[in-house]
Amino acid sequence: MTVTPEPPPHRPAATAAQALAAMDDLIATSMVGQQEMAQRLGLNVSDLTCFAYVIQAGENLLTAGDLATRVHVTTGAVTGILNRLERAGYVTRRADPQDRRRVRVAAVPSAVARVHALYEPYYARLNTLFADYSPTEIAVLTDWFTRALTLANTYREELRVRDESAE
Known about the structure:
Elements lengths: L15 H25 L4 H13 L4 E2 H8 L3 H13 L3 E5 L7 E5 L1 H22 L4 H32 L1
Antiparallel strand pairs: 1-3, 2-3
Helix pairs in contact: 2-4, 3-4
């Protein structure tokens, strides 16, 4: 006989359908929120997303190809994004020391500070929310986020391949 564990006393029980509905609401709200954040920074969402990857990379500077892969756009599209980010003072391009034909992208520190100033209060609230969960629950959340990301990227790639084969 399989026993279904009870949720912690302060957490309501939920079905997979309720979890999907909550996830859809979170994604929709996050998409609108990202648009608002990007506007506050004078960027569009694609540019902000690329800049976030540049920040995340830190000292391991990304190439345009790295960004294209992460954002799932062409290198030509990334060139346009980088041109806009550079004009807006968010990134600089540096020659790759191992391959002078390749360019690496570095975040401008003052731009990083602007982005952090905008996002830090929100991330502080998220950290407070995470603090309400046990380490085991955090591990489950992290596992779910990681696996859902892989699933989403795999599905997007399947759609791209299907579209290309239909052409």
